[in-house]
Design a protein that fits this description.
Chain A has 333 residues and is mainly beta. Helices cover 13% and strands 42% of the residues of chain A. Classes of the chains: A mainly beta (333), B mainly alpha (407).
Chain lengths: 333, 407
């Protein structure tokens, strides 16, 4: 504040001095210039006293590692809807929903294998437990499918003890935690169901927020904290491992820090929340309190741009997998 | 302190003198001004003969609205449109709301009102509904056999506020309480509703507020059990409560409807409603296809507010925008964007059947070099709206083509 006072008093001296100049116009111009400097200085001080995000923080340093859309061997991807990278086997698994199959790629994204099965109609969401068993959301059957490749078991997971809701239970996207518990979106009853991998009910999380309209995607971090997104209200919800809501942010708008149509989210190793804003064609990165850190990508169809992003996953190496229409783009920050 | 006393004294003197002078000038010129204007505008005198005269004209204060010397606005008005009117008519009192009548929003008060005088109350140009029907075609409102009595009388303002309202349709009251203002729950009323206590219900869910070819001005399409008076198919006898909650009630009859939701993308979301099917449909009656609870675009835009905003600000729009179900499937789809026929949606129903055959090639074998995915109509066009003509994604003369065809 001392330096500011001296600057202001200095400016007064300059104005007085300039006003005595014979050239009236010049004096007026310079005095306005001094005023502008003072205004800028005040704004500068205010910005630090009351930090406000005045501009969008776009992060340009994104490298496109790979673009997967299919080839003659694997065929064209047809509406892929879910994926995850297996850190143990170093494999990428993709639910190629429109082709009714699961596909695997190696860590260099070379095609490895595919699984089609009569129980798999429209696989859309895919997770794997520590034992290497898959749990697949199948929208064609509105069911969770359990897959044990070693035992060649592909069967619906029977959920037990689920408290009845007002509407029929229709599963949405799924997530899995360190303890192999599944987190299943109950689409029509506006709740999140937590079940053991056997399908036994553990507990449910309901969202106590008047703006809440229904969950679209869910993730769990290593601490057991739960992250979920509501595309219709444009909100991101963060719950602690007891299911208590700790923060809510976003909201449907076009201004900084708000979201137009957030459809998916992922958490990186630093705890940052990456939210796919489908209509905005970008990924907004927030800290846990909901403060926007920066954004990734921009709308478009070129490599590194997003035209219809629908799903996001981040692996331990920090590679960001984005399902974008009929292609998968892999970014690295 | 002494300085402030002097200063205050000077200010008071200044205000009194200037105020006195202003008043004197005004008092002196009050009559003279009007007489002066009449010298050149004698027909203005006739305007004062009508039943209702605008207060400034009645008092001969032409200069309340007109500048006698110069103005940048037509007829030497001292301000433009509504801004001039708001000088006297407090904008905050009745002209602000969530929904504002378009002429009010645009400041075109004279669309409905005469500025000087009229034989109709509120200086209206036309009486009652005739004024409204100038913009809102009569055919769509009162063309049908059974007409709501207030509509027949042209008393539009019985239900609508002509300026602004916080309710959709510029309604004077909430939809549920508006009708109750006239229609009390008599025995006859109860009998008409099969004995069900419908008081407090949304009457406009089943009845058209203007006219209908059905008895009781019911909406055009009726749910079969409703039409056959089989209320107990869904309701507990004598109660508005339903026999089963949620979609299970609907699925009992509409057994295959759930199959439509078992798609990669689906609309299985409860949204703002308590009942899933009722999020979009009216279980009794509708003027829309598929028994939709409201006009198609209103139903979709209720959740898709971002799309609504995008469409509204787009200079060029697809002609069928708002008729969402012509291109999209409401329940679920295995195609991107809920399209009914995927990338062939544009050529369905012979809308654009020749596209792709005589213009730029599209299809599975034509790969967009930018995205490495197959080209379709939406590669170049954005059907939801664009600032460019032909709803192109880029400027058509050069920018569009050089996206792929590098110079």
């Amino acid at each position: 504040m001392c330096s500011m006072s001296s600057n202001v008093s200095g400016a007064k001296v300059m104005i007085r001095k300039i006003n005595t100049n014979d050239n009236g116009q010049q004096a007026s111009y310079i005095s306005w210039k001094v005023f502008s400097y003072i205004q800028l200085l005040i704004l500068f001080v205010l910005y630090f006293l009351f930090p406000v995000q005045l501009y969008s923080k776009e992060k340009a340093e994104i490298k496109v590692v790979a673009v997967i859309s299919g080839d003659e061997i694997v065929g064209k991807l047809n509406k892929p809807s879910g994926l995850f990278f297996d850190e143990i086997r170093k494999r990428l698994y993709v639910a190629d929903s429109g082709n009714n199959r699961l596909i695997s790629f190696d860590s260099e994204f070379k095609y490895l294998n595919e699984l089609s099965h009569e129980e798999l109609i429209l696989p859309t969401s895919i997770v794997r437990n520590k034992e290497g068993h898959f749990f697949i959301l199948d929208n064609g059957k509105a069911d969770i499918i359990f897959i044990d490749l070693e035992k060649k078991v592909v069967e619906p997971l029977s959920l037990t003890g689920i408290p009845p809701g007002k509407e029929k239970f229709v599963p949405g996207r799924i997530a899995i935690d360190k303890a192999n518990r599944l987190y299943i979106i109950d689409k029509l009853n506006k709740r999140l169901l937590i079940v053991e991998q056997t399908g036994k009910f553990v507990r449910e999380i309901t969202v106590k927020d008047k703006n809440f309209l229904g969950l679209t995607d869910v993730r769990v971090d290593n601490n057991g904290d739960i992250y979920a997104v509501d595309a219709v209200s444009g909100s991101v919800y963060v719950f602690d491992n007891k299911g208590e809501m700790v923060s809510r942010f976003g909201g449907r708008a076009s201004s900084i820090g708000t979201l137009r149509f957030p459809v998916s989210l992922a958490i990186d190793k630093n705890g940052l929340i990456y939210v796919v804003d489908q209509h905005a064609g970008k990924v907004s990165v927030f800290d846990k309190k909901g403060s926007l850190q920066y954004t990734i990508a921009k709308p478009g169809v070129k490599e590194g741009e997003l035209s219809n992003p629908s799903y996001i996953f981040i692996d331990r190496e920090g590679r960001i997998y984005l399902i974008d229409g009929n292609r998968i783009q892999v970014f690295k920050e | 302190m002494k300085f402030f006393s002097y200063a205050l004294g000077i200010i008071i003197c200044f205000v009194v003198i200037v105020g006195f002078e202003e008043t004197s000038i005004y008092a002196k010129s009050k009559v003279d001004t009007f007489a002066l204007c009449l010298e050149c505008h004698p027909k203005t005198k006739d305007l004062t003969m009508k039943g209702r005269v605008h207060q400034p004209l009645k008092e001969g204060k032409c200069t309340e609205c007109h500048n006698p010397h110069v103005s940048k606005h037509p007829t030497l008005l001292s301000d433009i449109g509504g801004e001039l009117c708001y000088n006297c008519h407090d904008r905050k009192k009745g002209f602000i709301g969530i929904v504002v009548h378009r002429p009010v929003e645009e400041g075109n008060c004279l669309v409905c009102h005469n500025a000087h005088s009229s034989d109709i109350k509120a200086l209206l140009k036309k009486a009652g509904g005739d004024g409204c029907f100038s913009c809102h075609p009569k055919e769509g409102i009162i063309a049908k056999k059974n007409i709501h009595p207030e509509v027949r009388k042209g008393n539009c303002s019985s239900c609508h506020n002509p300026h602004a309202s916080d309710r959709e349709g510029l309604l004077n009251k909430d939809r549920r309480s508006l009708c109750a203002g006239c229609h009390t729950e008599t025995v006859a009323f109860a009998n008409m509703h099969m004995g069900y206590k419908v008081g407090g219900s949304d009457c406009l869910g089943c009845h058209s507020p203007h006219s209908s070819n059905r008895k009781g001005i019911l909406k055009a399409s009726l749910h079969k059990p409703f039409e056959e008076n089989k209320c107990s198919s869904c309701h507990v006898a004598g109660s508005t409560a339903v026999v089963r909650t949620g979609m299970s009630l609907c699925v009992d009859c509409h057994k295959t409807s759930m199959e439509g939701f078992n798609k990669i993308s689906n609309h299985l979301i409860l949204g703002k409603n308590d009942s899933f099917c009722n999020s979009c449909h009216n279980p009794h009656a509708s003027d829309e296809r598929y028994l939709l609870k409201d006009k198609e675009k209103r139903v979709c835009y209720e959740c898709h507010t971002d799309t609504k905003d995008y469409v509204a600000k787009s200079a060029h729009k697809h002609p069928k925008i708002g008729e969402c179900l012509d291109c999209h499937v409401a329940h679920g789809s295995n195609a991107l964007f809920f399209l009914s026929k995927g990338s062939n949606t544009c050529s369905q129903e012979k809308c654009h059947e020749t596209q792709g055959t005589f213009t730029h090639p599209i299809g599975e074998k034509i790969i967009d070099p930018r995205s490495k995915v197959a080209m379709d109509c939406s590669t170049c066009h954005n059907p939801m709206g664009s600032p460019e003509s032909s709803i192109l994604r880029f400027e058509k003369d050069k920018e569009l083509c050089v996206q792929c065809h590098q110079m």
